[in-house]
Amino acid sequence: MTPTKSLTATPPSIASLRQAIAGRATTATAVTEAALARIAEADPAIHAFLSVDATLARAQAAHVDQLAAAGAPLPPLAGVPFGIKDVLTLEGAPATAGSKILEGYHPPYTCTAVKKLADAGAVFLGKLNCDEFAMGSSNENSAYGPVHNPHDPGRVPGGSSGGSAAAVASGMVTATLGTDTGGSIRQPASFCGVVGVLPTYGRVSRYGLIAFASSLDRIGPFAANVRDAATVLGVIAGHDPMDATSSPLPVPDYTADLDKGVRGMKLGVPSEYFADGLDAEVRAAIESGIEKLRAAGAEIVPISLPHTRYAIPTYYVIATAEASSNLARFDGVRYGFRAPKSDTLAAMYRRTRDLGFGAEVKRRILLGTYVLSHGYYDAYYRKAQQVRRLLADDFLAAFRQVDAILTPTAPTPAFRLGEKSDDPVAMYLADIYTVTASLAGICGISVPCGQSRSGLPIGMQILGPHFGEAAVFRVAQAVETQR
Amino acid sequence: MASAVTLSPEVRAKYEAVIGLEVHVQLLTETKAFCGCPNRFGAPPNTNVCPVCLGLPGALPVLNKRAVEFATLASLALHCEVRERSIFARKNYFYPDLPKGYQISQYDTPLGENGWIEVLSGEGRKRVGITRLHMEEDAGKSMHEGFADSATRTYVDLNRCGTPLVEIVSEPDLRTPDEAYEYLTRLKEILLYTAVSDCNMEEGSLRCDANVSVRLKGAEEFGTKAEVKNVNSFRFIRAALEYEIERQIELVESGGRVVQETRLWNAGEGRTYSMRSKEQAHDYRYFPEPDLPPLIVTDAWKAEIAARMPELPGARRARMIAEYGITEQDAHTLTASREFADQFEEAARAAKNPRRVANLAQSELTMRLKAAGLELDQSPISMKGVAQAADLAEEGKLSSKQLKQLFDLCFERKEDFGTVYEREKPQQITDSSVIEKMIDEVIAANPAQVEQYRKGKKTVAAFFVGQVMKASKGQANPALLNELVTKKLDA
């Protein structure tokens, strides 16, 4: 990789860190200081972090070093530098969700997935920038300013988990947590040239994830390689008594089958994902990647997912409906921003929400309120739920034929800052290949698969059935190995 | 504003009211509906709270299994069909004591449906339909009064947030405020028997809203209804409904029209006020709660819950009437609460003559309670005490006059019967010669009655027993006295 302004770097892998710390070749403290130094060096140009807590990071590192010094067994993520998307809570740290309305809010409890990372020895460098309430595909909707793509700071990192993708792509941390509601992990992973995982709905607890759309929101990892991503998912997955929608299924070792290759696997290629609107360079890169998988012994099967074209409107009805309700709690009464000098309660509500929310968030609240309104519910929300079922059935049928599905993650490589920010529909279409899996509840991954002529990363999306993460990682590993 | 006092009885009599009640009942679970916080009344403000019931960003609800069991038990007790699959929904509205901006409730698939309870109305027994029973969570409390700066501030206590509720909606089957009162009484009784709630209206664990309309008697169509909120006391339910009925009649009589609206009952002023019109009504934008999977109550679980069903008041009354030979009215008094009925039956079964215990409780005890303005659970005389008195009377060791005096003393001194009896141990004349002497005197003084007796009117014996008892100041042993009177008269 030849970064235009040397903002990209490959962070140390989990395995290498473990080995070095356990073997006393380095210390978690030294690793943490290096991460802090890299943040100081690269982040002014990238703006991936909204807050950095060196004190907490050093304390966590010191704890790992004590364990290592005592010769105690090290937990699976001992000393691994992490960043956390700012929609996830960490007790005591700010959690703005990229919104002005949560300015100054410090949650009194920690997200389950974050807690699992902490228990596994991870070191938290800070909270990561994102589109406001995870609503966006470019990270330009952050109230605290956009994130710049490490491969070209004039371009967006994708969104909404832009900070999470950019922090890994610039080598500031080894892994991050992001969230994906309609593509918010996979699309920025594609734009930033890193690995991003969409776990099956229910695989990772949502407790402590500041909700955008509850039936779609998922927490997943970003990493520089497939093995690290699989390792992190293994740590954060599992049933949580605090989330009634989390699955009780046992969590397998996602790294176990990584190197088995794709020989004998049936991989579906849906025609609908290679139609008009797909950038020629992206098409070429993905088709080349598919050919390599065929060469490696996979059977490539043309398939159809016939309801795909309804996915974007369906998604924007369901996601905005849930958002309009989830974001009702931000009213200025109890925490966060409150507009000053209001004469009445109603005025305080109106002014707080008008000044506290950004334009895209307000647009979605209005859309969602409309589709749930008396007299419109059946035409929009109920209809969208019916179409959602059809989209899920498409995938169920496909997975009776194939083990995984291969598509581009996004129709284009990273676009320029400001290029689509005035055209919401063009922006929504950036998620055209990712919202289907979100609606169906299935799992997926975006793994780097070539570059454009100008050096911009291109990601391949690999989709698997419900709780089929192991197969998805196996295919992704094959793509990664052959790139 | 209509005044409810000017309506003439003739006009009033032309109309009939149609009333349906919506009753919210807090469930007596240990913890809240969707989190592990204690479900307790009276804690210092904002102390029984956590991220979940505070609705903090990122927190998620998890349904309390006990709350489902309580709601299912209540549904079954109200003869409702219990849905195997019911769905929680969000009811969206803004209010400072609703921290999530929505209430988790059930909408188009309530847990229980199509039930009924039986009430006694002017026309006899009547079944009042129950449309639905659904589960939901309570909101917090806005406190507009009682603080030094209440003129400019409202305080919010979120302890109540997430308290499990069931809302029980009746069919519009009630026709008078009395029937509504009776329905509420029977409903409360059933819920108390199932122990799913303490139904304490003062603490807000049972709250009632009423849908009220009026129509000319004999009309088939319903009139336009108004919803009267805040009818939160048994004391005011009749007054609030009567006010609203008369307000509507007066409106119609004067050529106006009832408008569909929400009205608030003000107990202090004894009237209802318009709160919001139909046009101002909220659009709650209900949709399925995505954070909770559908609630499944399998047949097996339902059967397990049904097995815990106690004998309900209606069945219990029927049995007690048969078992103790008491009247329906007596049975109502004795079954007013499950604890009281349990105490009564335990005492009655241990007593020599259970019917005497029932009679005593119903007559002597109830009369004194009423006079003292006390409820049954405030009675100085326990059921054990009543049974003890009954046994003493049964054995003839206590005349009815002595018993009455002792009961009076119990109420005076707020002591149980056993205590008073042990101390007072009323003198009894058990010496036959003394009693015989008194009988002789009464016989001598009443030759006419003696004549009647000897002509065959044996009931006159009671007259002589009474006279002698009076002469002995109630101290003659009743059994002995009876025996001796008969002997003397027959001699």
Q: Keywords, please?
A:
heterodimer; A: 483 residues; alpha/beta; Amidase signature (AS) enzymes; eleven-stranded mixed beta sheet; B: 491 residues; alpha+beta; Arc Repressor Mutant, subunit A; nine-stranded mixed beta sheet; 16 helices
Commentary on this structure:
The complex is a heterodimer of chains A (483) and B (491). With 483 residues, chain A is an alpha/beta fold. Chain A has helices spanning 14-22, 28-46, 54-69, 112-119, 162-169, 186-192, 226-236, 280-295, 311-326, 345-356, 359-372, 378-401, 424-428, 435-440, 469-482, and strands at residues 49-52, 81-85, 123-128, 175-180, 195-198, 218-223, 266-270, 299-303, 404-408, 443-451, 457-464. Chain A has an eleven-stranded mixed sheet with strand order 1-3-2-4-6-5-10-11-9-7-8, with helices on both faces. Residues 1-5 of chain A have low confidence and may be disordered. Chain B is an alpha+beta fold and 491 residues long. Chain B has three domains: 9-304, no CATH class; 313-424, no CATH class; 432-490, Orthogonal Bundle (Arc Repressor Mutant, subunit A). Helix content of chain B is 40%, strand content 19%. Chain B contains 16 helices and 16 strands. In chain B, helix 3 runs antiparallel to helix 4 (234-253) and helix 15 (461-471) crosses helix 16 (478-490). Chain B starts with 8 loop residues before the first helix and ends with a helix. The interface between A and B is large, with 45 and 29 residues.
List the topology elements.
The complex is a heterodimer of chains A (483) and B (491).
Chain A: H1 14-22, H2 28-46, E1 49-52, H3 54-69, E2 81-85, H4 112-119, E3 123-128, H5 162-169, E4 175-180, H6 186-192, E5 195-198, E6 218-223, H7 226-236, E7 266-270, H8 280-295, E8 299-303, H9 311-326, H10 345-356, H11 359-372, H12 378-401, E9 404-408, H13 424-428, H14 435-440, E10 443-451, E11 457-464, H15 469-482
Parallel strand pairs in A: 2-3, 2-4, 7-8, 7-9
Antiparallel strand pairs in A: 1-3, 4-6, 5-6, 5-10, 9-11, 10-11
Helix pairs in contact in A: 2-3, 5-6, 9-11, 9-12
Chain B: H1 9-14, E1 15-26, H2 65-77, E2 81-82, E3 85-86, E4 88-92, E5 102-106, E6 112-121, E7 124-137, E8 141-143, E9 155-157, E10 164-170, H3 177-194, E11 206-216, E12 226-229, H4 234-253, E13 261-266, E14 271-277, E15 287-288, E16 295-296, H5 299-306, H6 313-324, H7 328-334, H8 338-350, H9 354-372, H10 383-394, H11 400-413, H12 417-424, H13 432-445, H14 447-454, H15 461-471, H16 478-490
Parallel strand pairs in B: 12-13
Antiparallel strand pairs in B: 1-10, 1-11, 2-6, 3-16, 4-5, 4-15, 6-7, 7-10, 8-9, 11-12, 13-14
Helix pairs in contact in B: 3-4, 6-7, 8-9, 8-10, 9-10, 9-11, 11-12, 13-15, 13-16, 15-16
